Amino acid sequence: MKAFSRVVAERDNLGGTRLTVLHSESPLLLRRTGPTTVHLVGGGAGPLRGDDLRLDIAVGPGATLEIRSVAAQLALPGRDHLPPSRFEITATVAAGATLRWHPEPMIAAAGCDHHTITRVDVAEGGTLLWRDDLVCGRHHEDSGNVRLDTTIRYAGTTLYRHDLAVGPAAPGWSGPAILGGGRAIGTIVFAPDTMPATSGPGDYALMPLAGPGMLATAIADDIRPVQAALDPLCEPTRALAHT
Amino acid sequence: MHPENSVAGGALPHPSDGYTIPHTHGPEEVPHTHPDPGVDPHEPLTTGPRALRVGIGGPVGSGKTALVAALCRALGDELRLAVVTNDIYTTEDADFLLRNGVLPADRVRAVETGCCPHTAIRDDISANLDAVEDLEASLGPLDLVLVESGGDNLTATFSKGLIDQQIFVVDVAGGDKVPRKGGPGVTTADLLVINKTDLAPMVGADLSVMDHDAKARRGDLPTVFLSLVEDRNATPVADWIRTLVATRVPAA
Amino acid sequence: MSGMSLATLLVLADGRLPSGGHAHSGGLEAQVSAGRVRDLDAVADFLRGKLATSGLVSAAFAAAACAHPSEWAALDQGLDSRTPSPALRKASRAQGRALLRAARAMWTMPLTGRDLHQPVALGVVAAAAGLGPAAAAVAAAHGTTSGAASAAVRLLGLDPYAVHGLLARLAPECDRIAADAAARADDPVDDLPAAGAPLLDIGAELHATWEVRLFAS
To answer: Coiled coil where (chain A) (predicted)?
Structure first.
């Protein structure tokens, strides 16, 4: 299945946000659910092998957009001869704009082979919260292969470049260097927001990046402790202290 | 000659300045020789001869940290002084130096040795050199840096690439045979300190035997006896260091 | 690797090179303390994961820096963006600084920053030593496993023969990863490998807060 969906948010005359483009193709269905909120609503299970999904997000100067999803994304196996499923997300955030990407987790079902490629470009003066949660296999199930390949640029410089691979194709992925037997991981990248480093309890750390921003990472046996660690950082009321 | 020694006194870039290339390199250009490859362009700024570096080594429990504290007490007011410690270092140790040596925490750096204390002072001195340079960079010019080794055995000595002079500390409670056993620490250290002499009667150590054996092993190299209970300023060791500093830095 | 000096590569990749490595456990001390690494099997799992992630990234940046030493600043920034943990950035730069210090006494070095990330320093040094990107990549990949393996012997008291048996079994994978990395030495910095190991990041942050630690990282 191929899909290309696109959302463009712009600041309107009243200081609010107007969606000048909201184009959806199944299974990437976008629905406006609030003044600045768009939900991805599930259009069938997937992605499956062979799927090629693209989502473009543009947030114009001064606009605010939050993207959520109504349900977890379940990466499933498809026919063996097909290439890995692919979900390519491209986002641009202009000066004075805010983008919050905060979907439900992706679940890597046994036998899946999926690749998410994220490229986010934040202009100087823009604000980003980018959350990715991943669960390695459904309940009592082995993990499939998932790669989350993420590039986040701020003010023209690469701030965060990370490629996480889990599943049987990734050597040592559940070992003590990568997930340590944990089945769920969540990350949030903030730009240019930053706070002093903190770590623990458990496998959790909040890390100031070398550039203007920070990463919060949590790993646990299941998604609940990950959400408990990361959700408070995603509260819309949390002051985003610009530095 | 160690590269460290070739640049003492030079007006060189400060590490915190950041380094820029004085000319541009094309992407195809191969690395090339700069005008004076013998001069290390990355040494920290020093306004005069760099600090005298004195290593303090010796077996576990011989009193190295107590000696460092005593030297800080004795010399802290007259010399610009900092300490690098290679021991498993805790805030307890820092507090000990603070309480006993009147040495602020920013004048003490701890170096992790990866379970190999002798490696860090002899075979791979890079972490210690970094610590010394960082102290000089953050505090400004210093007269004296004491590098305290982690407690090790009788064979552990400092590399001359790291320190100028070394003190080896043994104690009478370790047995009066220690000087006779020799080993590079006892035999070659610039100063041998036989510590805790106040304990000699209790442990049955014969100081004259130790003195005789030390002389036999060390030839003309000096040995001092010390009891920090009786001499809280480690006077003979402090005096030895004063002489070194005085002869090293020309009078202004 | 034709034409290069194998002996020079051995000098550069020697664990006894005084470049600060002995004081770093490559993240192992944190995982030993967390109770995840207690025996040889867990060390093997740790090393496999580390080699596939930070080993690949290190090898690629060493190869790229060897092929393009004058690009050290852009490559250094590339590693900054791949190293979210401040503790790991510090550890990498400390080892890069130590390697450059050693290299200045060994070969004629070009001017670079003082505290480069270790893989970038390694690539620049390899170039100065007359080695090629493939050799730099092998040295980097090997270095990511050998340092942690040595720390495993010291921290866990494991049989050193068994640990070296493990390194010997990992050697073909090390070669494969280095070859992959070297083949990408001319790629744009953003396209170079970015394989991450989240527990190495978190472990390094937790480790940095300990009051007593035996290794610097």
So the answer is: none
Yes or no: is domain C31-206 CATH 2.60.40? no
Query: Strands A113-122, A145-154: parallel, antiparallel or unpaired by DSSP?
Result: parallel
Residue among A173, A176, A169, A162 nearest A132 (CA)? A162
CA atoms within 13 A on the CB side of A211: 24
- Chain B positions in Cβ-Cβ contact with residue C23 (cut-off 8 Å): 111-114, 116, 120, 124, 127
Map out the domains of chain C as residue ranges: 31-206
Q: Which residues from A are below 8 Å from C31, CB to CB?
A: 176-177, 180
Q: How far apart (Å, rounded) are the C-alpha atoms in residues A113 and A147?
A: 8
What is the pairing mode between strands A17-23 and A2-11?
Answer: antiparallel
- Check A163 against C196: CB less than 8 A apart: yes
Q: Is C143 on the interface with B (CB under 8 A)?
A: no
Q: Which domains occur in chain B, in start order?
A: 49-247 (3.40.50.300)
* Per-residue model confidence (pLDDT) at position B175: 85
pLDDT tens track for C83-114: 999 999 999 999 999 999 999 999 999 999 99
Contact yes or no for C121/C76 (Cβ under 8 A): no
Distances (CA, A) of A42 to A66, A76, A77, A99, B244: 17, 14, 17, 21, 78
Q: Do chains B and A touch (3 or more CB pairs under 8 A)?
A: no
Residues 5-64 of B with CB under 8 A from C: 15, 18-19, 21-22, 25-27, 29-34, 37, 40-42
Contact C48 A175 (CB under 8 A): yes
β-bridge mates for residue A135, sequence order: A107, A184
Local structure of B83: helix, strand or coil: strand
Task: Report cis status (omega within 30 of 0) of the bond before B179.
Answer: no
Neighbours of B206 (CB within 10 A): 12
CB contact under 8 A, C202 and A158: no
HSE-CB of A224 using CA atoms within 13 angstroms: 0
Helix (H, G, I), strand (E, B) or coil at A93: strand
The SS3 of residue A115 is: strand
- Do you find a cis peptide bond into A27, omega within 30 degrees of 0? yes
Q: Where would I find the H helices in C51-85?
A: 56-67, 72-82
**Partners of residue C85 in chain A, C-beta under 8 Å:** 205, 207
Note whether C touches B: 3 CB pairs or more under 8 A.
yes
Direct distance between the N- and C-terminal alpha carbons of chain C, in angstroms, rounded to an integer: 32
The distance of Cα C173 from the centroid of its chain, to the nearest Å, equals 15
Q: Which residues contact C124 (CB under 8 A, 6 or more apart)?
A: B31, C65, C66, C69, C72, C100, C109, C110, C112, C116
- Output the 3-class SS for B91-135: HHHHHHHHHHHCCCHHHEEECCCCCCHHHHHHHCCHHHHHHHHHH
Give the mean pLDDT of A111-126.
98
At B20, list the tokens: 């820029």
Q: Range with the lowest mean pLDDT among A177-181, A207-211, B184-188?
A: B184-188
Model pLDDT for residues C23-70, shown as the tens digit of each residue: 999 999 999 999 999 999 999 999 999 999 999 999 999 999 999 999
> If you search the block for the tokens 């220690």, which residue do you land on?
B178
Confidence of residue A78 (pLDDT cuts 50, 70, 90): confident
pLDDT in tens, C168-178: 999 999 999 99
User: Does residue B184 register a pLDDT over 60?
Assistant: yes
Rounded to a whole number of angstroms, the distance from the CA of B206 to the nearest CA of chain C is: 37
Is the pLDDT score of C1 beyond 80? Answer: no
Q: What is the pLDDT of residue A44?
A: 63
CB pairs under 8 A between A and C: 133
Chain A: partners with 3+ C-beta pairs within 8 Å? C
Mean pLDDT value of segment C10-15? 94
